[in-house]
Give the backbone structure.
Amino acid sequence: MPTPAPPAIEVCNLTKHYGSHAVVQDVSFALAPGETLVLLGPSGCGKTTLLRMLNRLVEPDAGSVSVNGADVRQQRPEELRRGMGYVIQQVGLLPHYTVAENVAVVPRLLGHAPDRIAARTGELLRRLHLPPEQFAGQYPRQLSGGQQQRVGLARALAADPPIVLLDEPFGALDPLTRASIRREFRELPELRRKTLVLVTHDVTEAFELADRILLLEAGRVQQLGTPRQLLLHPANSFVRRFFAAEQLGLQLRTLRLTDMLAELPPAAEIPDATTFKSEDNTVALTATVQEVLEQLSRLTAAGPAAAGDATVWLEATPPAAREPLTYASLMAAFGRAIQRLSAP
Amino acid sequence: MNTLTELLSFWQAQAGKLGQQTLQHIGLTAAALVLGVAVGVPLGLLLTRRPRLAPWVLGGAGILQTIPSIALLGFLIPALGIGPGPAILALFLYSLLPIVRNTLAGVQSVDAAVVDAARGLGLTDGQVLRRVELPLALPVLLAGIRTAAVINVGVATLAAYIAAGGLGEFIFGGIALNNPAMILAGAIPAAVLALVFDGLLAGLQRLSGQQRGHAGRALLLALPLLAGLYLLPRATSKLLAGFSPEFVGRSDGLPGLRQRYGLDPASVVLAPALVYEAARAGDVDLIDGYSTDGRIRAYDLRVLRDDRHAFPPYQAVPVVRRQTLAAHPELGPALAHLAGQLSDSVMTELNYRVDYRHETPRAVARSFLRRRRLWCAPQAVTGATIRLGSKIFGEQYILAELYAALIRGYTHLGVETKTGLGGTTICAEALRTGAIDLYPEYTGTGLLVVLQPPAATLDSLGPDPAAVLGYVRREYRRRYQLEWLAPLGFNNTYALLMRRRHAQRLGIGTVSELSAYLAGE
């Protein structure tokens, strides 16, 4: 009988004090391999300290951390860290190393063959839109902030570690760069397979990237769950208040059409799909409400129709077809769905 | 222009010595830098790991730095004696502060995020230090070594005072003889050396990261090699002589001996204050000194008899401005009380009490006057003030105090003493310009250092004390309006000294015998 795979990371009752000040108190969680956990909370809530205890940059006062079922204290810290990518907000590229040398740091520590390192470095840089022929020989000071952070990411991934820790990796970037790097990050196939722990105080970022969010306040876990659980079923008033300011935006981005099939009006008659549908006015069922709204507004901007008349069709809507959506019908369905979903 | 010509001809004449001194100077500086880097960098790194110690260590090094270099050498002499050891140690201590401080500052200036990222990636503490902190701290660290190097080149000139060689030998000889060309002969190469060290290390700082790493390693190899220059074999002989800079340069000092006896022992140069101590401790075997020096008695030294009269007579005589004598007729008789009162042995005794027993010159002067019944309580001052000068050694201080007491006791004139006027030329100049009214001088010194008569005149005077006194008296009157009064009685001539037992064992009693011993197989 196969034993179930151990959690990629398991944290039990982790506690850290600085003097009399408790920074992290009694935190526990377990991450399945490939899962992305976002440590979220206001500044000073202990999320960075919690992250740094995972790779032993900070040693806990109490509690334990296990990686792939083995207690991290059984390993030398350096060896543990070489098996985990590490990305920080200030990037921290070695200024006297070229881009390629920076990316190659961990593989070199691990004693990989030079040609293998060179191939891997080139591949990563290309994938992160830093063509090696142009960038490999440059020094960090010659790069923009966004480029530096991409190199930082490449460096963390160079040895293909199964786990990557990220401490506010996009925090120092301007909003435009941040959005584009975050998109690249999300779409990077490298990262899909990996277990990620990411620290941020940016709620939008957390919702965009997280499989689960661990919301911290004053070193204590306020809630651990999927973004939707935190949004629709806050465990306490802190959680509610924490998301209050951006609640609507988060809901629009979290709810998908599949979540509100019950609220969408069924089609009175089956329209002749081929005549009306095109790439431009069709949405997938997995689209979020936000994405449908964006598509509607694109149609309004492009076509002669008045705002209220724009419609989009739902792609393949079994078991029963649905009416094409307008602003009005979409928002009405959204409102009813939120009420239904957040009911206790 | 004249100085320049003198300088060039001096270099030409002393080319061998210049080369040797330059190599010694480089060797001293490099040896101290090697030690400074070897101790300072690890110490600085330790402080980066134990920041709480930093104020203490930096404070301690800072205090060392504030000790005047000549005083630091002085402190080290009782513990380490003279020679290269204490010189290198002193230079090393001076290089510590800049190196430690810049190592600490350099490592601390490394971006904390870079270190954090490096640790997070899995570099060990040692790897973080070697691959991240040290390379990034290197420019600042090099700046510290550069500062230390320039300080060391400068301070290393003082090594000449403790028989450690270097370019200071020319500089201090030149100062003692008031010979600007000789001072420049040592000072210019020292300045050039400082600029070269500075320039090389500055070039190192400007190199890019990787080149700098190579150059840094090259430097670490080169420094011990440079330090090795110091170990180049030097001239040796059966006896090692330790001479003061003035003696080495003066025509009636070593050059005179060389001429008259063909005497040229292997020698080191050291501070006049240290020669006796060096002889007693056995660091050197033969020294120059003064025949009335108190330490001859205290240290059990023997005066080698100057059987061929290389040293002219050095009778001690007060030299006074004629203007002052005319303005204050009571001054002459007051000073005359001391005429003929001090024989060689009496003066040696007085010097012994000051130099060795550490009694004050004033107390010694007063007890002497009391014993000779010459003491008179000071009278009320109603007249002008007489400015008394003296050179910078015990005997002159005692004589100045004796004259001060006589003037106060027998006249109503005030007395101001300006003791410790560097050397002969400084005193003579001060007297001529009226900065002082009188000081005790020695006939031989006046003859050779101040008057510098042609060789024919010197030959005609010969070793006759009366003839010499007559000549200097006449010439001083004619040239400078200065009056040599009656001699005090003793003859403080230059003397060659050896430890008495050592001299006895070798059977050396005269300079001729010494010369024969050195020449013999």
User: Anything to note?
Assistant: DSSP finds 16 helices and twelve strands in chain A.
